[in-house]
Amino acid sequence: MPDLIEITGMTSNGRGVGRIGGMAVFVAGAVPGDKCTVKITKRKKTFAEGELAEIIEPSAKRTEPVCTAFGKCGGCAMMNMLYEAQLAQKEKIITDALRRIGGFGDFSLDKMNGADNPLRYRNKAIFALKGGKFGFFEGKTHSLVPAEDCFLCPGEFSKIAAAAAEVFDGRIFIRKSEASGKIMAMLMPEGNFDRKKAIEQIRAACGAVESIMLKGEKKPLFGREVLEEQLMGVRFEVSPGSFLQVNPEMTKRLYRCALEFAKIDKSTRLLDLYCGIGTISLLAAKQAGSVVGVELVEDAVKNARKNARKNGIENAEFYAGKVGDIIEKLSQADTVIMDPPRAGSDERTINAIAAAAPERIVYISCDPSTLARDARLFAERGYRIKSAQGFDMFPQTMHVETVCLMSRIEK
Q: CA-to-CA distance for 57 and 49, rounded, in angstroms?
C-alpha cells in the first residue's frame, strides 16, 4: 500500500526528498512542496527509494511539462517545476556544495543568472536512431524513448534526426551556428547504410545543413568539415569534436562575468586552462598583454591556433597536452582562468597554479561539488573566494554553471 509523504527537498539529480518514519525517501518526478503517495521500491539502512503513485496536493512550484517524453528520457529532470523555482533550487545546490563539501560556511552567490529563453536554447545534441524512430535512450538502458521533438533544441534538429532515422540505426550529432544559422551533422551508424540516401534525406529535411560528416572519416560526405561561429566579436571555426558551450545566450553572459572577474588589461599575463578551441583565450587576448591556452584535445588546439590567425590575434599561443604536464613548463601568470570538465581539476595542477602565485583565479565550473572540492584545495594554498555567480546554462535540467573568483591572500 502506498505511503503518504510530503516532499521537502530535492537531490542534485532531480529526485524529490521526503521522510517516512524519519527515513529519507527519494522519489523521481516529485517536486518540493508536493504532498503525494509513493510506492517504496528499495529499502536501505539509512534511506529508501520510491515511485510516485499519486499527487494528493500539488506543490505551488509545480507546472505541466511541455514534453511528452518527460520522466522517460531523463534529460529534463526539472521540466515539471516553474522556472523561478528551478533557479532557486540551482542556487541552493551551489550554495550547499560550497558550504558542506568546501567548508565555506558563510558562502553565498552574488547573483543567480537565469536564462531569457529556457527552451530551444541548445546549439548541439546527439539523438539515438532505432527502427525508423529517433529519440533518447532511457537512463542506463538501450531502450529508445521516441521523441516527436526535443524542446531544448532548435526545431530543425528533430526534422534532421527523423530523416536520418529512416536510413540507418545508430546516432546522429547535430550542431547549429548561432551566427550563420547553418547546421552540421555527424552520422554515427551501426553497420553499413546508404550514404547517398542519407545525404539526400537530411538535406531535403533542412536546407540549413551545410556539412554532413561520418564519424571516423575526415573528409565530409557533404560540404565542409567545420562550422563558422561568432562569439562577442570573435570568429571561430568549430569541428564536430570541438568543445563549445551549448547555450549561446548564457555563454555570452558567463564569459562577460569571467572576463570582468579577471580584470584584464594590457599588463595582464593570462593563463587559460582547459581552453578548448580558444574561446575565452581569444576574447581575453583583445584586452590582455599575453595569453597562453592549454588544452588536452589536439584537434581543439589546432582549431584555437587557426582561430587566432583568422582573427589577427598575435598575442595568444596554445599548447596541447595534459594541463598538469604543461603548466609546470610555463612562465608565471598573474591571472588564471580555468574551465575544467565535470570531474574538476586535480591536485597536481592546483599545486602548480598555486606555486605560480597568480593574483587571481577565475574558476568556471559545471559541477558545484567538484568546484567546492577544488576551491578548498586553493584555500589551503593561500586563496580565498572573493565573488561568485551562478548561470543557468542548462534550463530544465539539474546542471548549473558557476563562475568563482579566488584571490591570493597577501601574507
A: 20
